[in-house]
């Protein structure tokens, strides 16, 4: 065992795990059951799981083609596009939420026409929650998939093409299966980030129980009044997401 | 969003620069007060104040420092409950000005107020200002809001503070006292977030404080409503037990509660007692 690697790795694990242990130690176990089954908590949990999953599906639908474009297509300004795609990773989510309001809000660049022509307003709806999550989480998927595409052996694609496969066939029958683990890993990252999303959600979608109050928002609100309730909610979110991630990892990433 | 770092007024910066310059050059006449000495601990007054008092206290500090040459008012502006926690944890503070009585009570029951000052001015601090709820609407008032009752309309979208934060608690008090039940589209995490939603025109109205309406200038219009009188927020101030200069701290509190202080507070939208 090379200690020069093992020691820092142990420090890293301890640093990541200790806060979790802190939550476990401080958790009010005696009242745990009653708190977890409160209707508001279940509503927030369901909203979180359904919006994060929807956001991941949306990110897959748009993010995988985008990653392919960045990895495989030659076009002017590609580096600029790549930089722009990663912007949501660097800007504070609250700023992202304000930006979404300025574009899709009732008086936003596009939102005003949605309202005037179709009578659709997005803020304060579950749709806004999903959009906020896609905005902050899709870059994780795009970066993972792009990395997988760059690492993939292109000779298989070239062989398929010389055998007469069309570009779409090459993509669906050769490229996609090759990078599937990368897509799986990216989707898991994306889902996890969407599940924990707070800043952009509360800014763009607001905070209303059952409609837009996801678990992270419920945790924040509980923190203001009852820190113990906040710990319980955090643990629920942590355990559910861990369970999902562990199950998926077995099935997907090692596929 | 909140600035919780200590702020220095310009004269403080000058003093520090003097001290630094003096240290670097070992002997330099810097100003008239023999700046070779480092900044005097006792020349600083540490005021912990609710974030909503930022502009007002900066103004008052300019007056105070003019009347007290060599004294430097150092602020720590943040949410009242955060400040109360810092004070009870032993932060070096001379004065605490809170945005509600409950956070002052936390300090009174914790680190405590200066006994002499409290005996003279009130065991729970002295209320020096009040803040009242206002309806804030976008300048074009798209939903034609005129009074509190209008906020209950089915097609009116309203942003309220979450019940967990002070402005939300005041909102609930006003609703309960008047029997007006508003169903908002969102419960925002603080009063500034409500204001932002109104400024951007994302909601037809929001409930904020009078001081927020004034701070927002012409980006929102404020509407007074009588039901707000049921939920007035008191701002208490007090000299703290672990002050290093009770006399100086008491003078600051006096200035805040004086006619001069009241004028500055009133200009910012606070009610004064």
TrEMBL record, chain A:
<comment type="similarity">
    <text>Belongs to the binding-protein-dependent transport system permease family. CysTW subfamily.</text>
</comment>
<keyword id="KW-1003">Cell membrane</keyword>
<keyword id="KW-0472">Membrane</keyword>
<keyword id="KW-0812">Transmembrane</keyword>
<dbReference type="InterPro" id="IPR005667">
    <property type="entry name" value="Sulph_transpt2"/>
</dbReference>
<keyword id="KW-0764">Sulfate transport</keyword>
<dbReference type="InterPro" id="IPR035906">
    <property type="entry name" value="MetI-like_sf"/>
</dbReference>
<comment type="subunit">
    <text>The complex is composed of two ATP-binding proteins (CysA), two transmembrane proteins (CysT and CysW) and a solute-binding protein (CysP).</text>
</comment>
<feature type="transmembrane region" description="Helical">
    <location>
        <begin position="116"/>
        <end position="145"/>
    </location>
</feature>
<protein>
    <recommendedName>
        <fullName>Molybdenum transport system permease</fullName>
    </recommendedName>
</protein>
<keyword id="KW-1133">Transmembrane helix</keyword>
<keyword id="KW-0500">Molybdenum</keyword>
<feature type="transmembrane region" description="Helical">
    <location>
        <begin position="229"/>
        <end position="248"/>
    </location>
</feature>
<dbReference type="Pfam" id="PF00528">
    <property type="entry name" value="BPD_transp_1"/>
</dbReference>
<feature type="transmembrane region" description="Helical">
    <location>
        <begin position="83"/>
        <end position="104"/>
    </location>
</feature>
<keyword id="KW-0813">Transport</keyword>
<comment type="function">
    <text>Part of the ABC transporter complex CysAWTP (TC 3.A.1.6.1) involved in sulfate/thiosulfate import. Probably responsible for the translocation of the substrate across the membrane.</text>
</comment>
<dbReference type="InterPro" id="IPR000515">
    <property type="entry name" value="MetI-like"/>
</dbReference>
<feature type="domain" description="ABC transmembrane type-1">
    <location>
        <begin position="45"/>
        <end position="248"/>
    </location>
</feature>
<feature type="transmembrane region" description="Helical">
    <location>
        <begin position="43"/>
        <end position="71"/>
    </location>
</feature>
<comment type="function">
    <text>Part of the binding-protein-dependent transport system for molybdenum; probably responsible for the translocation of the substrate across the membrane.</text>
</comment>
<dbReference type="InterPro" id="IPR006469">
    <property type="entry name" value="NifC_ABC_porter"/>
</dbReference>
TrEMBL record, chain B:
<feature type="signal peptide">
    <location>
        <begin position="1"/>
        <end position="29"/>
    </location>
</feature>
<protein>
    <submittedName>
        <fullName>Molybdate ABC transporter substrate-binding protein</fullName>
    </submittedName>
</protein>
<dbReference type="Pfam" id="PF13531">
    <property type="entry name" value="SBP_bac_11"/>
</dbReference>
<dbReference type="InterPro" id="IPR005950">
    <property type="entry name" value="ModA"/>
</dbReference>
<comment type="similarity">
    <text>Belongs to the bacterial solute-binding protein ModA family.</text>
</comment>
<keyword id="KW-0732">Signal</keyword>
<dbReference type="InterPro" id="IPR050682">
    <property type="entry name" value="ModA/WtpA"/>
</dbReference>
<keyword id="KW-0479">Metal-binding</keyword>
């Amino acid at each position: 065992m090379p200690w020069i690697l093992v020691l820092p790795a142990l420090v890293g694990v301890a640093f990541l795990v200790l806060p979790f242990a802190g939550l476990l130690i401080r958790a009010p176990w005696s009242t745990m059951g009653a708190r977890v089954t409160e209707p508001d908590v279940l509503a927030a949990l369901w909203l979180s799981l359904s919006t994060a999953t929807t956001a991941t599906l949306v990110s897959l639908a748009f993010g995988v083609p985008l990653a392919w474009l960045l990895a495989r297509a030659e076009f002017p300004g590609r580096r600029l596009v790549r930089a722009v795609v990663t912007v949501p990773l660097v800007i504070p989510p609250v700023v992202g939420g304000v930006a979404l309001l300025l574009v899709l809000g009732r008086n936003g660049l596009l939102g005003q026409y949605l309202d005037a022509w179709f009578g659709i307003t997005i803020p304060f709806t579950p749709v806004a929650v999903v959009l906020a999550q896609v905005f902050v989480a899709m870059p994780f998927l795009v970066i993972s998939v792009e990395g997988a595409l760059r690492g993939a052996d292109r000779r298989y694609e070239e062989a398929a093409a010389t055998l007469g496969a069309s570009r779409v066939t090459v993509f669906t029958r050769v490229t996609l299966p090759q990078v599937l683990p990368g897509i799986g890993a990216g989707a898991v990252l994306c889902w996890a980030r969407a599940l924990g999303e707070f800043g952009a959600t509360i800014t763009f979608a607001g905070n209303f129980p059952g409609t837009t109050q996801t678990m992270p928002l419920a945790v924040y609100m509980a923190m203001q009044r009852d820190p113990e309730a906040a710990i319980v909610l955090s643990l629920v979110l942590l355990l559910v997401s861990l369970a999902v991630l562990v199950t998926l990892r077995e099935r997907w990433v090692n596929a | 969003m909140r600035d919780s770092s200590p702020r220095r007024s310009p004269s403080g910066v000058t003093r520090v620069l003097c001290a630094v310059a003096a240290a670097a050059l070992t002997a330099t006449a810097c100003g008239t007060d023999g700046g070779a000495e480092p900044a005097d601990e006792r020349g600083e007054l540490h005021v912990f104040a609710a974030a909503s008092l930022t502009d007002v206290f900066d103004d008052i500090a300019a007056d105070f420092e003019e009347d007290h040459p060599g004294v430097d008012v150092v602020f720590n502006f943040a949410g009242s409950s955060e400040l109360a926690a810092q004070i009870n944890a032993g932060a070096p503070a001379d004065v605490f000005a809170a945005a509600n009585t409950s956070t002052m009570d936390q300090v009174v029951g914790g680190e405590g107020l200066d006994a002499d000052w409290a005996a003279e001015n009130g065991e729970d601090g002295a209320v020096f200002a009040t803040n009242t709820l206002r309806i804030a609407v976008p300048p074009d008032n798209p939903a034609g809001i005129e009074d509190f009752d209008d906020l209950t309309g089915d097609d009116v979208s309203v942003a309220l503070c979450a019940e967990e934060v002070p402005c939300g608690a005041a909102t609930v008090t006003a609703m309960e006292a008047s029997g007006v039940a508003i169903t908002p589209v969102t419960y925002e995490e603080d009063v500034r977030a409500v204001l932002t939603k109104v400024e951007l025109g994302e909601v037809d109205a929001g409930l904020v404080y009078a001081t927020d309406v004034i701070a927002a200038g012409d980006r929102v219009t404020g509407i007074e409503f009588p039901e707000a009188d049921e939920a007035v927020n008191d701002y208490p101030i007090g000299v703290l037990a672990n002050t290093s200069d009770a006399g100086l701290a008491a003078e600051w509190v006096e200035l805040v509660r004086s006619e001069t202080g009241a004028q500055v507070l009133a200009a910012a939208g606070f009610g004064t007692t």
